[in-house]
């Protein structure tokens, strides 16, 4: 019987006939990906803009800047219009990726009868980032009460859309004595599915695409994301698109949005909604793809004193897509205030 002979280590293995072409193919793909990334950045690079440059277009009167929270507080972009003797002014709070411009189609009509206060939340619009980098819901609610104190608003009717809708009911929860009535428009508050998140926000939440979001801003991406929030994309106007394209470029806003999304990712507190008791209008678009209209019924069920109105043929932004129909419902709701 022959002894076992170990194979010689000096004998080289025969290379696979597919190995070298595969390596060359992977290298070519890597080079192509890097070149594509460089080209994308070169084409769609958008630098941060100083607030002064953007204010020349978006901060004209009646805009003003008010510092709230002391010397180290936030310098908030505010519009305060309408009669000063209104005993219960309206506080309008915009949603994610938006700003006080979302109320443009409403503000003039409302201001004929009511005092109307609108603001850009921290990290949005002309307000920009806060020094401490804190964008948690509780911090935003505290900023709202600080602003009310500065403006002398003892009690308000709060109107909120999307993320601003959540801030509205959180304000009513934390300070019920300061909120007399509510209007919640496609408000956040209940768990959502990933597919309900707008395209632009999904990009901002996905590494390394979120890094690209800090230095690029393709117009086509903003336009597509905005169109997804309309039942009829033909209703998106150039003025709307310009606002959604330009205002997030304010210095610090894009980084603030990354922080806000991270800090509020696991903050669902829908159990608080069931404790609310106040007259509330729930306004929703029937064709809202971001927040299905069935959620309007959840708010109606959980808030004592709530009534839901579903607008047919309308998406996630009723105040911009169907401003007349949506405002008519709000005016009817306000008319019942004295009853």
Q: Could you characterize what this model shows?
A:
- With 339 residues, the chain is of the alpha/beta class.
- Helices cover 40% and strands 15% of the residues.
- The protein has an eight-stranded mixed β-sheet, sandwiched between helices.
- It is globular.
- The model has no long low-confidence stretch (mean pLDDT 88).
From the structure above, extract its key features:
339 residues; alpha/beta; Rossmann fold; 8-stranded mixed sheet; 13 helices
Write the layout of secondary structure elements.
Layout: H1 19-44, H2 51-58, E1 63-68, E2 74-81, E3 90-93, H3 104-111, E4 116-119, H4 137-151, E5 156-161, H5 163-174, E6 179-185, H6 199-205, H7 209-213, H8 219-228, H9 238-246, H10 253-263, E7 277-285, H11 294-302, E8 304-311, H12 318-321, H13 323-335
Parallel strand pairs: 3-4, 3-5, 5-6, 6-7, 7-8
Antiparallel strand pairs: 1-2, 2-4
Helix pairs in contact: 4-5
């Amino acid at each position: 019987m022959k002894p076992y002979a170990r194979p010689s280590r000096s004998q080289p293995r025969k290379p696979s006939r597919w190995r070298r072409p595969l390596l060359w193919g992977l290298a070519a793909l890597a080079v192509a990906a890097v070149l594509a990334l460089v080209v994308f950045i070169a084409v769609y690079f958008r630098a941060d803009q100083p607030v002064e440059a953007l204010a020349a277009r978006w901060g004209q009167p009646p805009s003003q800047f008010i510092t709230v929270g002391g010397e180290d507080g936030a310098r908030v972009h505010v519009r305060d219009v309408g009669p000063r003797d209104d005993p219960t002014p309206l506080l309008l709070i915009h949603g994610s990726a938006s700003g006080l411009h979302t109320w443009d189609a409403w503000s003039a009509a409302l201001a004929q009868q009511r005092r109307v206060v609108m603001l850009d939340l921290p990290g949005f619009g002309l307000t920009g980032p806060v020094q401490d980098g804190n964008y948690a819901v509780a911090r935003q609610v505290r900023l709202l009460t600080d602003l009310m104190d500065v403006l002398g608003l003892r009690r308000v009717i709060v109107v909120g859309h999307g993320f601003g809708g959540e801030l509205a009911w959180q304000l009513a929860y934390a300070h019920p004595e300061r909120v007399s009535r509510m209007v919640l428009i496609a408000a956040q508050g209940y768990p959502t599915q990933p597919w309900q998140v707008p395209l632009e926000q999904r990009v901002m939440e996905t590494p390394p695409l979120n890094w690209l979001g800090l230095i690029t801003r393709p117009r086509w991406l903003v336009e597509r994301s905005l169109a997804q929030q309309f039942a009829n994309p033909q209703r998106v106007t150039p003025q709307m698109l310009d606002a959604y394209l330009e205002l997030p470029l304010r210095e610090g806003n894009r980084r603030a949005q990354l922080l806000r999304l991270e800090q509020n990712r696991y903050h669902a507190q829908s159990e608080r909604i069931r404790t609310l008791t106040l007259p509330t209008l729930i306004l929703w678009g029937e064709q809202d793809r971001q927040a299905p209209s069935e959620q309007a019924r959840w708010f109606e069920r959980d808030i004592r004193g709530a009534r839901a109105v579903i607008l047919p043929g309308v998406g996630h932004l009723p105040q911009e897509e169907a401003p007349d129909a949506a405002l008519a419902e709000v005016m009817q709701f306000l008319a019942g205030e004295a009853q």
